[in-house]
Amino acid sequence: MKKGGLTMTRQGLFAAGVVASALLAGGACAQELRFTVWTGNDAHLAMLNGIAEGFRESHPDVTVRFETIPAGDYTQKLTFQIAGGNPPDLGWMFEDSIPAFIAAGVVEDIGPALRETEGYDLDDFSGPAMDLWSDGDAVYGIPFSTSPFMVFYNKEMFEAAGLKDPLAMAEAGEWTMEAFRDAALKLTEANDAWGFEFKDGEGYDSRIMHAIMPPIRAYGGHAWQDGECGFDDPEAVEAVTMLHGMIFEDQSIVPPGEQGDFFSGSAAMTVNQISRASKMPEAGFEWGIAPLPTGPAGAAPIIGQAGISVFAQGDKKELATEFAAFMTNAENVAVMAQFFPPARASVLDSDAFIDANELIPAEQMAYVSDAIKQGSVLPSHENAPKILAAMKPRFDALFRADADVPATLAAVCAAIQDEL
Amino acid sequence: MASLNEPGTTVRAPRAPWLTLKRRETIEGWLFVSPTLIGFLIFFLGPLIAVVFYSLSEWNLLSQDTIFVGLANYEDALTQNPDFWQVIRNSVIFAAGLVPMNMALALALAMALARPFRGVVFFRTIFFAPVVTSAVAWAIVWKFLLQGDAGAVNQMLATVGIDGPNWLREPNWAMAAVIVTRVLKMVGLNMILYIAALQSIPRDYEEAARLEGASEWQIFRMVIWPLLAPTTLIIMVITTIGSFKVFDHIYLMTGGGPENGTLVLAFYIYQQAFEFFEIGYASALAMIMFVIVLALTVVQLILRQKGST
Fold first, then answer.
1. Is the pLDDT of residue A19 over 90?
2. CA A101 to CA A83: how far, in whole Å?
3. Are A139 and A130 in contact (CB under 8 A)?
4. What is the CA radius of gyration of chain B?
């Protein structure tokens, strides 16, 4: 009996050991990827978690935790996490911060892994869309959102001013910078509202580049190129002079220090990305979207981008790269297209994308698709924070009624040249 | 039984206990202050010493590249960076505008509200409320009120025929606007300090002066003001230091603009450290700010000592 009892004890211990080993082994295999994002939107997070669930089909022990950091603090907090030795495995990256992150060597080159991933087809991403995220064969991020800036307009105010619809003007090839200026003035005169509002009303502060680059590129200018400032080139001067005239002579653009929100009906036009269409059902007026007006240099669509990068300090880089590849394969890019316009040509050309946004009619989405294919991203630079900080006080001086536009733009160039 | 004090025997004195009353009190004293002391060492002295070392290096937070550069950061700030002197000038203007205005208003309010009268608590609460109001809410509301033509302030001015400026878009007006709104936010604190000081002055002094035929102004100038001097010094030191350290108000109302017109030292340090990630340079600027504030405090203390002698 005693012997039998001992045997039972040994068997019990053996069984417990097996269970414990299995649990420990299971624990060792289970891995969590930490993925930082700047969205807190429930629909966005549900979509992202759905993609993570799909990844578990091939990696049942892997969970992905999406950590939201507010957009305003995103780059700063991410930098402190990296500097503090606690980097996330992957994260969304803003277009204006990726050059500095690449230069600092804190994002991983995932190009080789993506090329080896079966069925991934890296070449499906359009070349211009990948410019910012790659350097030769090295790939430091995959753009998940390539969203062009479009003109949002209040149809009722256009009708009240007796103006032709901008989309119709665009189709007839009449939607030019001159037509835009003329429309903004007539809209201001005909309605109790401003003709145009810069993106999010921040054109004089955090969105200076969004305010000035559409006309500058339409006139054939640029911000900087090959280390040389272009703000004082004649094309840029002409474009900014036009903008200055609209603000202070025509008084058709919401001026500095005033508020005029398009979405609440106090401005007739604004520039934004199609993700802002989600605000329109609450606006209470008929609206539409049109491409940016063309200039002497023709059409110059501008796109805003955000990408997914794997961090070089992470201890699960291989797994993180696999998830980045999964998340940006054709199937998942099509899923994300409902919120984030894709850079994959195969998805961009599909009917699924044209019909993806239930708020925007297909004929307007076709312009979005065209703009993505032809557009170029806003100017970026590894010293972007310093460049923008140096630009800001000079542009403050520009946005005054008595400003000498050419002299002020020359001062902008003098201030930023060292950083270029 | 042999006597303990037998002649010729050496008597060893009993050994004194190690834990004497003095030692025990000393240990207890250290134990009592240790929580504060440890906190001071870890969270104040440690970082302060670290900042000195950081200021001697070129340390980019993002790339983690650190190079010892000696005094190069100080040299760059003091001799090569034109923005630095504008920042110092702005900080001095801010302090020079804020400190006298704050102190004068605080004293005036305290004189009016020190003596009890019906509703005095209500008025004290009204003037103190902004101190405990969220700085963010305060700045946002004022930013809204100080808009150009559509702002409530300018619309009120328009009713009396004054064409108000675009307050936060013109450098000089922006500085005036941030000073005044900051004074309105913080004056309640100094008002409370002055009220406490005024209430501690014995009424006999005033009454004696009044019996001697002194006017109200003479009573204030000859009796009350000298007796308020210690409080005035404390308020001046605290307010001056606070004005050099102002950050949130600038960050929220103007972001240092327009045209760097409100770019003050604390905000500039923040910009270097947390926007450009130049920790070494920001540390050098922080050391410069530390020296300026320390020097101002010492000067004020010396002036006070000279005044009292």
1. no
2. 12
3. yes
4. 28
Distance CA A175, CA A155 (A): 15
Chain A residues with beta carbon closer than 8 angstroms to that of B168 = 257
Count of pairs with CB atoms under 8 A, one residue in A, one in B:
65
Q: Cα separation of A278 and A275, whole Å?
A: 6
Using CA atoms, how far residue A324 sits from A82, A281, A309, A327, in Å, is 19, 33, 8, 5
User: What's the rounded mean pLDDT across residues A339-360?
Assistant: 82
**In angstroms, what is the C-alpha Rg of chain A?**
26
Bond into B230 cis (ω within 30): no
Structure tokens at B271: 């910009």
What is the rounded CA–CA span in Å between residue A149 and residue A371?
Answer: 8
Chain B, nearest residue to A398 by Cα: B259
- Name the residue ranges covered by the structural domains of chain B: 21-54, 77-308
Separation CA B2–CA B11 (nearest Å): 13
pLDDT digits (tens, 9 = 90+) for B14-70: 777 888 889 999 999 999 999 999 999 999 899 989 999 999 999 888 877 889 999
CB contact under 8 A, A393 and B147: no
B119, two tokens: 């509703």
Of A205, A259, A385, the CB nearest to B150: A259
Cβ contact (<8 Å) for A100 and B62? yes
Q: How far is CA B307 from CA B194, B217, B229, B297, in A?
A: 20, 21, 9, 15
Q: Are A80 and A101 in contact (CB under 8 A)?
A: no
Do residues A362 and A370 touch, judged by C-beta distance below 8 A?
Answer: no
Q: Please tell me the predicted confidence (pLDDT) of residue A18.
A: 53
Q: What whole-number distance in Å separates Cα of residue A93 and Cα of residue A305?
A: 9
DSSP 3-state of A150: strand
The answer to whether B91 and B262 are in contact (CB under 8 A) is no
Q: Which CATH class is domain B77-308?
A: mainly alpha
Residue B86: exposure state from Cβ atoms within 10 A (0-12, 13-18, ≥19): middle
Domains of chain A: 32-148+304-377 (3.40.190.10), 150-300+383-419 (3.40.190.10)
User: At residue A410, does pLDDT exceed 50?
Assistant: yes
Q: Which residues pair with A272 in a beta bridge?
A: A150
**Backbone dihedral angles phi then psi of residue A236, each to the nearest 5 degrees:** -65, -40
**In this structure, are residues A307 and A142 in contact, taking their beta carbons and an 8 Å threshold?**
yes
Q: Which of A419, A355, A360 is nearest to A392 (CA)?
A: A419
Specify which of A373-377, B222-226, B273-277 reaches the highest per-range mean pLDDT.
B222-226
- Phi, then psi, of A159 in degrees rounded to 5: -65, -45
> pLDDT band at residue A27, thresholds of 50, 70 and 90?
very low
Please tell me the predicted confidence (pLDDT) of residue A51: 94
